[in-house]
């Protein structure tokens, strides 16, 4: 019983030591100036896509007076939509960059992948319309204008679906209340060893990118805190010049001290991030050198295998020659034995005739 109590107490002590600094993660500095992303531009672009969908569906009735120019007008409007989508994609990239600078690296990666899809859909649709125009003499199933309308309608619907996904993700980002996910790599050293190994080895491909995002996030925080410190210093000097009571001065001095302390903490965290980034680069260099060494060893094994195969082929050729020589020798021995037997028979017959005589 005493041994079991001792073992259980030792296990509890080890667990307590592992989780000693994990609660620091709850005290990580939040980006208190996180800005909400606007979806006004995305909604206006969705209205534009809806207008193009109506244009594709009702084109014969809209351009009833000029039916011969219908394919030309559809292609021209699609090119205009492609240009507008390219400009709007730059706006989406700017929004995604702002999300990344707020410290939400994983979320920005998701938004970046979605932001590229509307332009890709419109570009593929434009390419299909070009193919329809090129193969116009060989298309007999539907008219060219009908095919162009179908392609335009499908591409607009696909782009609208992708924009709906983007608007939903932005709305989810605006409703987030948690900490930026780049802070997880900052406090990775405070995690148990298993999670740290998983971060540095199993997910090593994204480590440098995450550390760079964390550096950008900390730089933005430092810039914001510097502006806050300057603003508080100006307020403090203004209150000190006034003839009011000392209570506002005390409050502002306390706020200024807390901001200054947080600024120093962020500077220390940035230094830690730099050290972790150097460690990650060293690990990547070691892994590359190990891979290069394995490749060199593999090449040596391949050369040795080829040399052994050449030796084996040479010995096989020699064995074949020896087998042929042995077969020829065996045949010559058999002929020689036959000749000896014939000579013996002749000599025996001759001796028998001599005896009879």
TrEMBL record:
Compartment annotation: Membrane
Membrane topology: Multi-pass membrane protein
UniProt GO cellular component terms: late endosome; lysosomal membrane
Magnesium listed as a keyword: no
Swiss-Prot/TrEMBL keywords: Coiled coil, Membrane, Transmembrane, Transmembrane helix
Residues passing through the membrane, by range: 43-63, 69-93, 114-135, 147-167
Keyword Metal-binding: no
Pfam families: TMEM192
Coiled coil: 305-346
InterPro entries membership: TMEM192
Family to which this protein belongs: Belongs to the TMEM192 family.
Protein name: Protein FIP1 isoform X2
Species: Phoenix dactylifera (Date palm)
